[in-house]
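Entry 14. Structure prediction run on the chain below.
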Amino acid sequence: MSRFFFAVWPNNQTRNTILQCRSQLDFRGRTVNQSNLHITLLFIGKMTVNQQKKIIQQANQIEFPSFEIVLDHSGYFDRSRAFWLGMQELPESLSKLHQELLDIARNCHLPIKPQSYVPHLTLARKAAPVTLQTIKPIVWSIDRFALLESIDTNQGVEYKIVKYFTCSNESN
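Output returned:
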């Protein structure tokens, strides 16, 4: 069984802005492949095919308006040695979407580990400790989220989009 997670996925313009920001920052580590840049909404882990069908069916019922997030600072997690971009203020819409997905996962009897939600976009893994740096804020319009499958390959991890879920003020 593969590992699965829900995430917001940047459009090409936002991805390019993130890459431009990353190129201006001073850090050492293994940069995340540009095609894998995302903010995790909820890590699920392994699922059976039936669990996958059930969680997709329930996620299809989520209604949310489009909203914006602002990546406005860098950070570093000592434990995972990850260098990342994050938000000083967590938008209520992002927090609510995370909570709805968490509720769905629990309704599907998936063993989600309790942890606080710290949304971030990882720029590099196995990074050396970093002095936090000021960045030009990146405004990211969120109008959809995705269920992704994490696949280990000889070239590293690849993320396959299983399904997109669009906001309620857009047509599916």
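The helical segments are 12-23, 49-59, 92-107.
Filed with the rest of this week's runs.
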